[in-house]
Design a protein that fits this description.
four-stranded antiparallel sheet, single chain, 3 helices, six-stranded mixed sheet, 10 strands, 2 domains, alpha+beta
Length: 164
Amino acid sequence: MNTESEFHAPWANSLKWMTLFSVAILSGVALLGLSSGPRGNAIWISALVLGPLAIIAVGACFIIRGYVLTPNEMIVKRAGWKSRIDLHDLQSVEIDRDAMAKSVRLFGNGGLFCFAGLFRNKKLGSYRVFATDPVRAVVLRFTNRTVVVTPHEPENFAAALSRR
């Protein structure tokens, strides 16, 4: 693979609904905190106004916008930065719609703007995920780790990685 290949990260309907619901709840808590709390109480303002708004803002920074394949790495495009994954010890690439099924989140985000972090299930063991639509899952197995991504064209993404 001599050139970069870029793949979008479309949102599943479930992610859209989870994000909408979470933002609505967190915004509601902030509005309730503003309207019903003691005026000038820093602890109240921090906990019930700034806290929920900070969760939304930080979560938005972790949005996964897409994936770029270069000859040596995969770049996960985020809202505020890029996560880089070295591909030199990639062992296999597999499309698996059910890869994330029955997973437990060990650390990370489970549905506010994306699915990202460290997850575990019986099928994959512990794995790192950068996902927006689990049914588009592509499993990347490395020598000592597993990564799951969800590009808009899983077949083309897997083929591009296999050609390298």
